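re: that chain from earlier
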Amino acid sequence: MTYRITFAVSRRARFLSHLETVDTLLSALRRGGYDIALSQGMKPKPVISLALPRAVGVESEAELADVKLSTDPDPSEVAERLARELPDGLDVIAVEEAIGKPASSRLSAVSYRIEAMDQPVEILTRRPRTRDGEPHTVRLPFLARFVGTKVVDRPRAYVLPAPLGAFFRGHGLLVEEPPAEATVEVARFEGASHHGARAILEASTTGQCEVSWSRETRAIPPGSVLVRTEQPLGAVAVYLSEPESDDGLVVNGLVTTPSVGDEFPVLRVVD
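^ sequence. v structure.
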């Protein structure tokens, strides 16, 4: 049976990388007495996936992981054993049977705001700030809580202009030939916000795109490529492809900012 684990990440555990978090969950399940199901093929691997990659150093109140066990224990039992074996800072919120799409294909945030953590951090410095200054500690806000402000339901795939294929491959994404026809969602540009899209990272003079959506069945334009979202780095595909992303194709200068009324050149494939 496949189980969906909802867990929080805080304190020292926030410094675990994406892969370290996966390994920690697997180790805790094994210590709890469970055998992890393995994938098929020449190099079987544990069947586990996290919904979204979490940046190192960032706390989270609700991470999602899908893991398949070789047996079918009660979810409440899995939650109890897992909570007992996880290290400090990884806290089980819920365990349930995973029904429907995997966690990695659920909602994705494509725009964020950054908030201060509950407690400030203490930084050791000197006063005056010279080599022979007296040791001194200052307290500063710890800006490390990223809150999604634009969340989208992942489509099955995106259709992109062919020149963007190499960029997506460079991010580790599988790029394929698209079908001749598909049901797609089309974004039409309505303007841009007055706020720079990446003010918390690199400066950007382009505001975030504001769009409206329509759904239709249409022929796929010649010279297009397809990027599916149900792959290990599918969240990256969503973050890059969505027109309202704060770090997407427009902000990175890979797509020219459309004029009002123009279609965004990336299509969501929904069927």
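The chain has four helices and 14 strands.
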